[in-house]
Amino acid sequence: MKAMACALGISFLVPLVAAGQEHRELARQAQAILKTHCYRCHGQDGANEGGFNYASDLRLLVSRRRIVAGDPGKSKLMRRILNKLDPMPPSEEKARPSVAEIDTLKKWIAAGAPARDVAAPRPFLSSADMLKSIRADLAKAKPRERAYLRYFTLTHLHNAGLSADEMQSFRHGLAKLVNSLSWGKRIVVPAAIDGAKTILRIDLRDFQWNEKTWDAILARNPYGVLFNTDLSREIAEASGCKLPYVRADWFVAVASRPPLYHDILQLPMTESDLERQLRIDTLENIRQERAARAGFNSSGVSRNNRLIERHEASGTVYWKSYDFAGNTGRQNLFAHPTGPANRDDSFLHDGGEIIFSLPNGLQGYFLTDGKGNRIDKGPTSVVSDPRRPDRAVENGLSCMSCHHRGIIEKADQVRAHVLKNKQAFSEGALENLRALYPPADKMAGMMRADAKRFQDAVGKTGAPLSATEPITALAQRFESELDLALVAAEAGVTKDDFLQALVRYPYLAKQLGPLRVEGGTVQRQVFVDCFQELVEALKQGTLLTSRNLTAERLIRRGQIDLKKAPASALKAFNDALAQEPDNPLAHAGKGDALRLRGEFGAAIAAYSESLRVDPRSAVVLNNRGLAFHRRGDSVKALADFTEALRLDPRFGIAYLNRGVVHFGRNELTQAIADYSEALRYQGSSALIYNNRGYAHLEKGEHDKAIADFDRAVKLDAKFAAAFNNRGLAHLRKNRLAQAVSDFSAAIRLNPRFAVAYLNRSVALMRQGNRERAEVDRKRAIELDPNLDGE
């Protein structure tokens, strides 16, 4: 980041077709067909196969670009229905769209994909509306219970325009996740407390959470806004918690993975500690041949051969895998089917996954390295998850996705291998392997029973059992890019108010400006990065986890705001100096802001502080020179510009500024020399040519002046001052027609250019046109009374 040098100058929504009666009937038929063939898996009661849970919402199909209005051939939904290799509905579905139904869908799209009727505007639920619902719910509870009540909100998704089916998908995902983070024995579904079902209540005790659990959640929450209202304070007092609510989508995305996943379930740091916590002794079970194993060459996540092993004790089912980074030596499970042990004849694994049943029938997950230490992600050399951007298996989320129907039934290959190659194993080893690797039907029975227990528990949450696991689908959606509607809703304001904020606050526009473009989006990380500043700008409140913005970022904000909002810029630079009192860029920026506010003495002091820390900054010397000049101290201004040029002899702006000061001191030769150097290093500039031309004019070098003014207006045809100045040069050469023409051009460009009117008045008077001259003179004085008597 650099200080900025300053210079002186002498002068999506996709439109829907309005549906008539015929179009309404066509839309009704299309919706009925989609409900018959698609809705069961893509929307009904929140069903979210493939992340597509709005199959019957005609408006969303268009706005989400599944349908291209007017063009069936370019419509993704139509192409998928007609795809013979991978059709929708899937080929195993017996009920399929008829030729007539497909033709109706095509006609509906070709007609512009009209909706059945005009959508009634969804009421915007403000933060105050949300807080009122929470306060009312707390008031209904017994005072002793209020401290345990917490809330998850979907208000912003309602405001962003998500369909009822999409909202239900989020409720399912939340219900499954909170119960997957529970040590309680019962499945408890969060209860909706408002009419729109956007606020869901839980009781911490149902999940064996406590206040510390909630504090751990709040500590990770970047969206926790503390509203400075009586409502907010009443809620905090009633619940005994500063912020008893969090956003449900954020929670689903973040609490389903480390570190919050580990924190809420209170998972220990090692596999051995987990086993003690669950009262499972795997080594003793293996010794007593009470474990059940299946080994195989291929797996959905493991790159190499893999072993899974089942244990059970005190009602807990405990599955663990042994994963390998290779297939040779002691990593070859088929050659070394016994273990784990520190023996040459046993396998040596590189990591593993543990799946254990929770008291409510759902599953918990735990990843380990080869030494049994807990890890957040599995190394991709051992396991991988193709659904994640980095392909790493992440504890919690990746496991939930893979095991969306519970334990995956896998057929053992080791037992058959051992029995076919008995000569390769000792008698004792054969008996041990027969016991640990049970027959296929017995192992399959255990897997199916465990999977059914899990599926029954999922059913109690209300979440569907589908290939698209609801927690994973919602996490992926949360991570995706944000459009204008969602960003505004997440900020707690309407789209119009949000766009106005981008106009008012340039530092926000620089980050979130793409949203002002139709169809524009921003990355989630970008939004989080500036969320605190957005909340402050919109005066929503303060963040519970407010952080001190770094001095570097505050300086960057100040530099963006400098020209349009110097007061805001000044605050940013002062905030930066509060963190880093000797930051030269912050002092320099403060000087710039003060100078733009006309506080030249204070600006000079700020620049001097910057130079105290960094005395070799040519830019700051240049800018302090500007402040001296504005204060009327040409000697010190010249000294600063000269020192800046000593430090940086190619500093074109400093030459320009020094030239202006020389001109003001009537040192015309020096001014012309500096302007020439400025042109040499800055390149062609209408302003510099104009300034040099004026110096030539004052020196009486009229032809040189006209040549420079010619260049100025050629570079900038709207440069009114340059036309006026060229008119003066023509006037002094008594070229009256050219003078009048130039003054008139200046007036056309700037109808309030008083001096140009006065100059044209002089030229007209010399032409003998006294009447027009008098009109111009009066207009000049009307615009600028100080010109009276000129």
What can you tell me about this protein's structure?
By secondary structure, the chain is α+β, with helices and mostly antiparallel strands. It folds into 5 domains: 21-110, no CATH class; 127-255, no CATH class; 265-472, no CATH class; 480-543; 548-615, Tetratricopeptide repeat domain (Serine Threonine Protein Phosphatase 5, Tetratricopeptide repeat). The protein contains 37 helices and 16 strands. Helix 19 crosses helix 20 (495-504), helix 26 packs parallel to helix 28 and helix 27 (600-613) runs antiparallel to helix 28. The chain is elongated and about 125 Å long.
Which SSEs are present, and which pair or pack?
Elements: H1 21-37, H2 58-63, H3 76-82, H4 99-110, H5 127-140, E1 149-153, H6 155-159, H7 164-180, E2 191-192, E3 199-203, H8 211-219, E4 225-226, H9 230-239, E5 245-247, H10 248-255, H11 260-265, H12 271-278, H13 282-287, E6 292-296, E7 306-313, E8 316-323, E9 351-357, E10 363-369, E11 374-375, E12 377-378, E13 393-394, H14 397-402, H15 414-420, H16 427-436, H17 440-461, H18 470-479, E14 482-483, H19 484-491, H20 495-504, H21 506-512, E15 521-522, H22 524-529, H23 531-537, E16 542-543, H24 551-561, H25 566-579, H26 584-596, H27 600-613, H28 618-631, H29 634-647, H30 652-664, H31 668-682, H32 686-698, H33 702-715, H34 720-732, H35 736-749, H36 754-767, H37 770-783
Parallel strand pairs: 1-5
Antiparallel strand pairs: 1-3, 2-3, 4-16, 6-7, 7-8, 8-9, 9-10, 10-11, 12-13, 14-15
Helix pairs in contact: 1-4, 5-9, 7-10, 7-18, 10-18, 19-20, 20-21, 21-24, 24-25, 25-26, 26-27, 26-28, 27-28, 28-29, 28-30, 29-30, 30-31, 31-32, 32-33, 32-34, 33-34, 34-35, 34-36, 35-36, 36-37
